[in-house]
Write a structure and sequence with these properties.
With 97 residues, the chain is mainly alpha-helical. It has three helices and no strands. It has helices at 2-42, 48-57, 61-89. The two termini are 31 Å apart.
Length: 97
C-alpha cells in the first residue's frame, strides 16, 4: 500500500511541482540576466551594458552591436542550459523530451 501511495504522490504531486519549479527558475534566470545588464547600463565601469553605453557615447555602432550580440549569446546559453536541465530532470514531460 505504501508503494501505491508513494507512486501516486510522485506522479500527481512531485512531477508537476518539479516541472513548474524549473519553468519559474528559467524565468528567474532570464530576468536576472536582464537586470544585471540594465544595472550595468545605469552605473558601471565594466560589463556588457557599459560597453553599449560607451559605444553610444562615442557613436560606435560596431561597439553597440557587439554588446547587443553578446547579451543575446549569453541569454541563449542560459536558456539552452535551463532547458537541458529541465529535459534531464523532467523526462516525463513533453517539453523535457
Amino acid at each position: 500500500m505504501e508503494q501505491i501511495i508513494d507512486r501516486y504522490l510522485r506522479q500527481s504531486f512531485f512531477h508537476p511541482v518539479y516541472h513548474r519549479f524549473l519553468q519559474v527558475l528559467q524565468i528567474a534566470v532570464g530576468t536576472s540576466w536582464a537586470t544585471v545588464v540594465a544595472a550595468e547600463m545605469v552605473r558601471s565601469s565594466e560589463g556588457v551594458g557599459w560597453v553599449i553605453i560607451r559605444g553610444q557615447d562615442s557613436n560606435s555602432t560596431v561597439q553597440i552591436l557587439v554588446g547587443i550580440v553578446a547579451i543575446g549569446i549569453v541569454g541563449y546559453i542560459l536558456a539552452v542550459t535551463m532547458r537541458a536541465i529541465e529535459s534531464r530532470l523532467c523526462k516525463w514531460s513533453v517539453r523535457g523530451k
